[in-house]
Give the backbone structure.
Amino acid sequence: MIAKQRIALTVNGRQIEAEVEPRLLLTDFLRGTLGLTGTHVGCEHGVCGACTILLDGRSARACLMLAVQADGSSLETVESLGTPEMLSDLQKDFREHHALQCGFCTPGMLMTATDLLRTQPLASDEEIRDGLSGNLCRCTGYENIVRAVRAAAARRGGTPS
């Protein structure tokens, strides 16, 4: 039997302490232990971006991390952005610009876009596309996703509408 390890971290502003097996993936901790099912499990190789979270303010792939590696960190998942009753501005932009279809990639896209909007100038569609290039979508063709991020960037003064 593998000895469990105690971790302490902040998830969506909430202090969490838990005992986890050292080999537990962060995605499994978020989804199974904490019930935060917005973080999707896609390729499990860090390629698709469906599991993107913000770790200490920067986007990271939760499927490539063990829960014990997040010890002492601050995490934000898609649940931190808003609720169905009170969407964030970025979520409203995604809805308004029809930037989702099946919705599987949407949480990862939203978290990546959140990071980009906080850290990048996003002065052109090319910059937005480059920033989102690590997230795969099989439904939308990306144009509406770029429009949604462009709208968010324009609101904060980054890129013209």
About this structure: The radius of gyration is 16 Å. The beta strands are 5-11, 14-20, 52-55, 58-61, 74-76.
